[in-house]
Amino acid sequence: MTTAQAQRADRFDEWLQGINRVCGRFGAKCLGSEFSGSIREHKAGAIKLSFVDVSQARLFRTPKEVAQTDGKHFYLAFQLSGRAGMEQAGNRIEMSPGDITLIDSTLPSDFVYQENSRQLSLILPRHVVEQGLRFSGVRCAQRIPASAPVAVMANRLILESTRQDSLSLPESEATLDALVSLLRPALCSAEAEQDAHERLFRKTLRFIDEHICSEELCPEAIAREVGVSVRGLYRMFSRKGLVVAQYIKNRRLDFCAESLRHAAGEQKLSALGYAWGFTDSSYFSTAFKARFGVSPSEYRKQYSQG
Hints:
By secondary structure, the chain is an alpha+beta fold. The protein has 2 domains: 184 residues, Jelly Rolls (Sandwich), CATH 2.60.120.10; 111 residues, Arc Repressor Mutant, subunit A, CATH 1.10.10. 49% of the residues lie in helices and 21% in strands. A 5-stranded antiparallel beta sheet has the order 1-4-9-6-7. Strand 2 and strand 3 form a beta hairpin. Keywords: DNA-binding, Transcription, Transcription regulation. One of its GO terms (molecular function) is sequence-specific DNA binding. This is Transcriptional activator feaR. Pfam families: AraC_binding_2, HTH_18.
C-alpha cells in the first residue's frame, strides 16, 4: 500500500468512527480514490443533529449493525449539497439539494454518497414521530422534493435552529414537533389513512386518551369499547410494533411530562402520577426516568429554569 493509499484509509477509518459515534453503528465502503469525509455534531436542548460531508462512500446498515445500535429513533435527512442515493424497505431515492427524507434506525438501510455530498442528519425520537403522525403509517425513504413548500419551510426552520445558541429545552422540543407537523402530509402513508384497520386503530387511541386517567383502563375494557377481542386488540398494536400496556404507560408519562412543563405550582409528584393513573409513586418515578432520561423533579426543574 502506498503512502497516499494508507493516508486515505486512515481518513476513511476516522470518518467511519465519527459516524458510528454520532449516528449509531454503520458499515461502510470507500468507492473511489477521491474519498473525503467529515462529520460535525450540533446539540441544542432536544435537538441532536450532525452535518455529514462526504465524497465517494457507501454507508449501510444490515441486520447485524441494527442489532448493535441501541437507539430506536428516526433520522430526518436534509440534502444540503451534492447528491446521495438512499434506500430502505425496498424504496430507493436519489437526493438532490433541498430534498428531505425520513429513515428508520431500526431497519436495514443503504446510502451511496457521490461527489461533495453534504447532509444534515437530525435525530427524531420515536415518540415524537409516532405522536406527530398518530400512527397513521410512516413513509420511509420517500423523497420530499426541494420544490415542495413544506420542504422549503422545513429546511429554513432546521437551519435557523442551528444558529440559535440559546435555544431552551422547551423551544427545541417545540421545534421538533413543528418539523414533524410540517412534514406530516409527506410522511404519512395515504393508503393507511383509508384503511379500515387504521380507522379502528385511531378510534382505539382516542378512547385510550379519553380514559387515560382511569385506573380501570385495561386491554379488556378497551377491546370491549372498540368491538374487538382482546387477542385482536393485541394484534392491532403488534402490527405497529407496540404493546398495549406499554403504550398506555407511555401515554400517561407523556401527559405527566406535559403537566410538568406547564405546572404553575409545586404539585406533589406522587399526586401528579396518581392523577394520570399511576398508583405507585416509586414505579412512576422509575418509568418517567426510563422514558425521558431524567427524574420527574429534574424534568420540572429544567422547565422552571427555561
